[in-house]
Amino acid sequence: MKKFFKLVICSLLTISLFGCSASTNAEPQSQEDNSLAKIQERGELIIGTSADYAPREFHMIIDGKDTIVGYDIDIAKEIAKDMGVELKIQDMSFDGLLTALNAEKVDMVIAGMVATPERLEAVDFSISYGKSTDISEGQKIVIRAEDKDLYTDVESLIDKKLGVQKSGLQEEIAKEQLSNTKINYLTKIPNMVLDLQTKKVDAIILAADVAENYVNKNPDLYVTEIPLIQKTEGVGIAFKKGSTALAEQTNATLQRLMDSGHMDEIIEKNEKIVEDLNKN
């Protein structure tokens, strides 16, 4: 987990609004970090997400309107509130999120993304966040319920078709731990689930909470106990490299939510929403 640093907002705002007087002996900085100031000046925080990951981010009809909701979205609202700006959501495929971030089409990515070593080479991450009892989510193999006695270990999946989300942590796990399977790459989780149900693949990998959600909604699916190793710690929010001010401001909000217990309340509220939706 990355160390949390306290943010001094005033100095950054002073630089943004009034400029900075450097001494004659000071070396000029190559690039000023205005990652936070430009958002506050714009009055809008733009987040990138892939809204197919309930209870984190998903689509729901509210008052007749298709709305993106979930606990990541509620957390993003808290982040925007602490910045004093409005929240704008850009929904896109998971494998395009970091490209959009580095092209500055979004200010941050909040989409159940894990800070793998490969991703850390391309972007920065916030501290890890989640439920206080389970900040490091595991990964689960989901199969059809009719096959629960057929696929009981990694060896039973040799030469079977495995569905994973392209550019997700599950892709890395599949390549390292299930290399003897035939890996099928898709960009959207609902498409992966549909492929499993229609027997285009024999198994899929999902984060534990997402797997539980889909199995609760679809009794024809089953979460196996086949162990998978997740080497990285928890989920974080991604920023363009060098966005120190934005990362520190975001970390301050995440730490506040976790220290107060409000993080757990937000997560449990959205888990209950998904549970109720699955009953209908």
Textual characterization of the structure:
The protein has 280 residues and is α/β, with parallel strands linked by helices. The protein has 2 domains: 10-18 and 34-134 and 233-279, Periplasmic binding protein-like II (D-Maltodextrin-Binding Protein, domain 2), CATH 3.40.190.10; 139-223, Periplasmic binding protein-like II (D-Maltodextrin-Binding Protein, domain 2). It is 37% helix and 23% strand. It contains 10 helices and 13 strands. It has helices at 9-18, 37-42, 71-83, 97-102, 117-122, 169-177, 189-197, 208-217, 244-260, 262-279; strands at residues 44-49, 52-53, 57-62, 65-69, 86-91, 108-114, 123-125, 139-144, 161-165, 182-186, 203-207, 221-223, 235-240. The strands form 3 sheets. A 5-stranded mixed beta sheet has the order 5-1-6-13-7. Helix 3 (71-83) crosses helix 9. The longest helix has 18 residues, at 262-279.
Fill in the keyword field for this structure.
280 residues; alpha/beta; D-Maltodextrin-Binding Protein, domain 2; 2 domains; five-stranded mixed beta sheet; 10 helices; 13 strands; 23% strand; globular; disordered N terminus
Strand order of the largest sheet: 5-1-6-13-7
CATH-defined fold name of the largest domain: D-Maltodextrin-Binding Protein, domain 2
Quick one: overall form? globular
Tally of individual domains:
2
Uncertain runs are 1-30
